[in-house]
Amino acid sequence: MFSPETGARPLADGASSTASEIGEVLVSEQDLQRRVRELGQAISRDYEGRRLLLVGVLKGAVFFLSDLMRYIDIPVEVDFMAVASYGSATDSSGVVRILKDLDIAIEGRDVLIVEDIVDSGLTLQYLLRNLGSRNPASLEVCALLTKPERRKVELPTRYIGFEVPNQFVIGYGLDHGERYRNLPYVAVLQR
Ligand code: IMP
Ligand code: MG
């Protein structure tokens, strides 16, 4: 629990039992918040006067998206998609299945896909094709992280938070076996 005396954070309790899995911090909480604010300001400028719809990809993007949205000061709506990618635990195959589709019709809308990380790019390639076929007015991508060394397909990503090296990362939405999403920073998974 949060303790006002010690300043201890709730996540410290949850993380401490497996602290050995949390490796080097690649992006600090402060750097995340600063960059997310910059992205929100840029999006607000670029989409001024348009009908912006953020499409969050569950579950990893939820944390980034909810912070990002609070830095957007133009009218904005949000919807979510959940997808599963066939493949091994660490490699997506590009064969993607929709687990939850959008609630909102996107024809004529300015759609910005919000993703946690672009790794091989295969999931995003599928999403761009799928959503693109629904005739949005525009379709762009905002990803918190990118791992360029892993890329199998090149995609137009208009907004990127940070580049990370070819390592498995956790925190700020990114999980390893559904854990560590609650870390307020991005760290390397230590195996
Ligand atoms: P892609 O289709 O290979 O680009 O994979 C994209 C998805 O894989 C992301 O949306 C993440 O959910 C997951 N992913 C890729 N790299 C990492 C990582 O380093 N940590 C946690 N999840 C990752
Ligand atoms: Mg995941």
Q: Would you spell out the secondary-structure blueprint of this structure?
A:
Blueprint: H1 10-16, E1 22-27, H2 29-46, E2 52-58, H3 61-70, E3 76-87, E4 92-100, E5 110-118, H4 122-132, E6 138-146, E7 159-163, E8 169-170, E9 186-189
Helix pairs in contact: 2-3
The protein binds inosinic acid and magnesium ion.
Task: Spell out the helices and strands N to C.
Answer: HEHEHEEEHEEEE
Q: Write down the CATH class.
A: Alpha Beta
* Class inferred from helices and paired strands: alpha/beta
- How big a fraction of the residues is strand? 25-35%
**CATH fold description:** Rossmann fold
Number of strands: 9
Main beta sheet strand tally, sense and closure: 6 strands, mixed
Q: On the 0-100 scale, what is the average pLDDT?
A: 90
- Helix share, percent: 10-25%
Overall structural domain count: 1
CATH architecture: 3-Layer(aba) Sandwich
Q: How far apart lie the N and C ends?
A: 27 Å
Tally of separate helices: 4
